[in-house]
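INPUT
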Amino acid sequence: MEVAVNWYLALSAVLFTIGTLGVLLRRNAIVILMSVELMLNAVNLTLVTFSQSMGDPAGQMLVFFSIAVAAAEAAVGLAIVIAIFRSEVTVDVSEITLFKH
Amino acid sequence: MDLANAYAALVADLPAVFSMGVVGLAGIVMVAIDAFRNNHPIIPWLGVGALAVSGAWELTQLGAPDATAFLDTIRTGGSASFVNLIILLSGLATILLLRPYLNRMDRDYGEVYALVMYSTVGMLMLGAANDMVSVFLGLETMSVSLYVLTGLVREDEGAVESALKYFLLGAFSTGFFLYGIALMYGATGTLTLPAMAQAELATTSSQLLFWGGVALFLVGFFFKVSAVPFHMWTPDVYQGAPTPLTGFMSTSSKAAAFAALILVLYHAVPGGEASTVIAVVAAITMVVGNVMALGQTNVKRLLAYSSVAHGGYVLVGLAAGTSAGYSGALFYLLVYAVMNIGAFGVMSMLEWDQKQGREQTLSSLAGIGEQRPVLGAAMSVFMFSLIGFPPLGGFMGKYAVFAPAVDAGLTGLVILGVLMSAVSSYYYLRVVYVFWMQSAEDVDVKGFTEAALPQATPAALGTLVVCAVALLVLGVFFGGVLETTSAFFDAASMASAP
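OUTPUT
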């Protein structure tokens, strides 16, 4: 049975929204990082859907790049989180407030 | 096209990525040297050499006609070379200013310079992108390297905290930006910028998809160029990062991101539909940046808000949406790069180890102009240029973005911009006042002695003097540069006309 394109797009929009809310509402740096990854993967699903429905490979090529970039970002992000845990002994972003406006 | 022809075509395109290749290769060689001769002093000079060679190459390409290379993914020719030149020169100045700073901090690692090179490669790709894949890859290569550079001084809580903030917000904005690309791709069926403009948006739903994509794309980009209301990370990150690298971030990465934004607006979203949104963002960016800077006592934070405000001035040129507006914005980016690299460069040489020296409040810098007359004089030139005081480069830069906006009917926006420049003179002149008119005895500066100031190397001092002189030159002999930048868009519009 063929599933309509719109279902894939709706699913990825829902995943993207969950990721966005996760970044905005959660206070743990690791969970925020996971939410960002969810956002990027939601976009990948959108790209693959469009690419498949239009029969154009360019979108899937961008997905490969986006997966690679997400991996690099995760590596750097976790390193930064470890560095901050060493100095502050917390990964709660609401407690990391050295700078004031 | 069969495989043999494809190879021949790719080899023939290689000169298009000369700078990217040289800078990237130098970065790899630097890491290799660092692996065997840890922190060898040749490493930064290798970077300087590669950036200088690439800069000289781009200088010869300034008059070249606009073209694309590598299957329409990269633009070459005048406008791309001009942007590349800004990026390469600020990279060069950054490395020269970085060496004495890192030496003093005992952080003179070879990898740092390699990361500056990788980040530069990303910027070069971003500033010459003709394809959404190049925009995305360039932006991310630049950003991921900058996240690491921000958190370089791991023991400093402020640096790590600013790295975390930069990373989380940067990655968050990447999500929006990529989603925007995906929606634009879905509506137009292509990732190449000029082809996007030519795609027919037949149905209402595809139009909705496209403009939704453009909106998300702009949100992502406004984060990167720290336009209000997406500027929240800027002051914290600029304050916490190592000072010469703050200069790098605020000039090169902004020039590259603005150049890519111009390319997208000019090639993929023509017709000025996005102009109203950009005008509104430009207005609030100028107001918030300048008003928030008024109350700052930390000079790096003050300069961070000032850099937000200057992003607003560039956006005025983009809001005009005309060839003159875009070429004015490119000219402004050059002037802005020179004065901001210089301002942060001076600050990097006025840090000393005690807490008050690290924080660089206005009062801790009282009378520094008399202690270090060259730095003080250079800083005064940069401050006056940031105000937009004739005959310095900043004045001509503002003229180059404001005049096309008046022609495009955005008189109100320009009046606001000029008023905000007047407001900005308060906090810039306060820096000059503190440097020259106050003395260290007036305010109680703890831990400051003449010897506490770091020793400036000739190369770094020379860089600052060159920046200051360049501002004078750009302010007086602007005609040639402005003609060069405006030729880009006239030629480009003729080339893309059907």
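end of record. Chain B has 21 helices and two strands.
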